[in-house]
Amino acid sequence: MTIIGDYAVWPAGLPWSATTLLLAAVAGLTLVVLVAALASIVPPAPLAGIPSPPGDFLTGHVYKRTANPPKQFLKWSQELKSGVFQIRLGRKRVLVINTVREAHELLAKLGDSFSSRPTLFTFHQQVVKGQFVKLTLASAPWGEVTQRKRKAGLPPLNNSLVESYVPLLTVMGRELIQGLLSDYQASNERVGDGQNWAVLDSADTIRRFTRMAAIGVNFGMTPKEVDDSWRELAATWTNGYQDPTKEQIEAVTPELLHEMSTYIGRGSDVRSQHGMPQDWLPPLRIFGRPEDGDVCEAVLKLRTIYMNRLLKALKQRQADGKDVPSVLGNIVLQERVKLNHDEMISLCNSMAATGLDQHFHSAMQWAIGFLAANPQAQSKAYDDLLQQHKGERFPDFSQAKSDYLMATVKESLRLSTPLRLSMPRLTNEDVVWRGNIIPK
Questions:
Q1: Under 8 Å CB-to-CB from 270, ≥6 apart: which residues?
Q2: Which of 10, 48, 169, 432 is deepest in the core (most CB within 10 A)?
Q3: Which ranges in 42-165 belong to alpha helices (H)?
Q4: Taking CA 421 as the corner, what is the angle to CA 377 and CA 344, rounded to the nearest 5 degrees?
Q5: Is rRNA-binding found in the keyword set (predicted)?
């Protein structure tokens, strides 16, 4: 054998003509590989007329977004003095919308053009493994199945049916208030006598409320039923995803419930457009799936188990005539809705996502914190409510009429947002916006 350089091994005595041919073949193959590699990394042309911050040649803005992409996007928007700008993630051009006005122009007026979702390597190929029927509406690309699920989910949310869910919401609201009072009493006990202030930690109470509201209203369950189902899920999680025993359910601690809530919340990070660099940089995929991908797959399995249990219990209550008005209960009763089991579980996941992904509680914490720091706003809303009703009690909140109270609620929601960065969207067609073309 003849060694060429330090790497190639060549048969000794091979004629020069054959050697030349083999070398030419190797060189040609190498050239093809290099051309293909360059084609996969050469950045595409930028979108004309839309500004962009400086990025790296190969990776674009993948590593420029820092550990807090929403904050970095806001900074870029301010530096570029533009509510819309473009970034490049690998070879993909991404449009970032950073103001309400531009969001209304693009996502409201031209909403049909942005109705799809991009398919990401980690989440859609590795975790879901291409079974898009199991995805929530916020994660699924546009198609016949997605259209059917959205069509099924709209009727139960019309005004007349929403009013039928008010009794459940009233019960949930009372649970929230009682929980906040308990937190306040506990904080006073921790502070002790002689202090005129207390630190109110309401995170777990608000997290419980968002879960109760999402699960309770969608499946027609009382707060106790939601709590019991959540404890059973925690026991399932620690029991290797197998049905737990009664003793295992009773052994669930508040610390375990908190840990599971945090764990389930991590699943949404993989679905976001900023979580996984290998979604945009294919060479990184040779290192295997990151830990967050494994967590997301486990969370998806756990949520599927949970939705199956809740849906089965809902159908049993309907069969026994013990159900109460609920969103998914109305969907099940719609004879014209033809969804198979996987599609129905996906719709359940979509409807209950606000309580499972643990995003909405942050907006509520900001609102409660603002009201706690501004008691005059509470007093004025309360006085206006009494004045409107002339001191009379009213059966439930749906009959409460107070412009100031409603304005207070709406303004409180402006203090924070459930999601600082929304789920990514994909253009279905070329879009013309302010004379600029946003390609499909």
A1: 122, 123, 127, 276, 292, 293, 295, 296
A2: 169
A3: 69-80, 100-103, 144-153, 159-164
A4: 100
A5: no
Q: What is the pLDDT of residues 267-307, one digit of tens each?
A: 666 666 566 788 888 888 887 777 777 777 888 888 889 98
Rounded Cα distance, 233 and 252, in Å: 10
| CA 281 – CA 59 distance, rounded (Å) | 7
pLDDT by residue (tens digit) across 362-416?
778 888 888 888 889 888 888 887 787 766 665 555 566 778 888 888 888 778 7
Neighbouring-strand partners of residue 3: 9
- Of the candidates 353, 318, 337, 314, the one whose C-alpha atom is nearest the C-alpha of residue 138 is 353
Largest Cα span, the chain: 108
Calculate the alpha carbon distances from 211 to 78, 178, 223 in Å: 36, 16, 9
State whether residue 355 is helix, strand or coil: helix
Task: Please provide residue 79's backbone torsions phi and psi, each rounded to the nearest 5 degrees.
Answer: -65, -40
| CA distance to 125, 171, 433, per residue, from 107 (Å) | 27, 35, 11
Distance between first and last Cα of the chain: 55
DSSP 275-289: S-GGGT-GGGGGG--
Helix (H, G, I), strand (E, B), or coil: what is residue 356? helix
User: Helices (H), strands (E): how many in the chain?
Assistant: 16, 6
From the CB of residue 124, how many other CB atoms can be counted at a distance below 10 Å?
21
Count the Cβ atoms, other than its own, within 10 Å of residue 256. 15
**Helices 166-191 and 223-238, packing angle to 10 deg:** 70
What residue spans define the domains of the chain?
A: 2-41, 43-115+426-440, 156-358, 362-413
Q: Percent helix, strand, coil in the chain (nearest 5)?
A: 60, 5, 35
Distance, CA of 194 to CA of 117 (rounded, Å) = 56
Query: CA 140 to CA 37: how far, in whole Å?
Result: 30
For the cut 60, the answer to whether the pLDDT of residue 310 exceeds it is yes
Cβ atoms of residues 299 and 270 within 8 Å: no
C-alpha distances in Å from residue 286, one per residue of 123, 276, 281, 289, 345: 16, 14, 11, 9, 33
The HSE-up count of residue 415 (CA atoms within 13 Å, CB side) is 18
Which of 240, 259, 352 shows the shortest CA–CA distance to 301?
240
Please enumerate in sequence order all residues whose Cβ is within 8 A of that of 99, keeping only pairs 6 or more positions apart, or say none. 77, 83, 84
Residue 22 has pLDDT above 60, yes or no: yes
- Token pair for 287: 């290192």
Question: How far, in Å, are 239, 267, 428, 431, 438 from residue 435 at the CA level?
Answer: 58, 39, 18, 10, 10
DSSP letter at 154 equals S
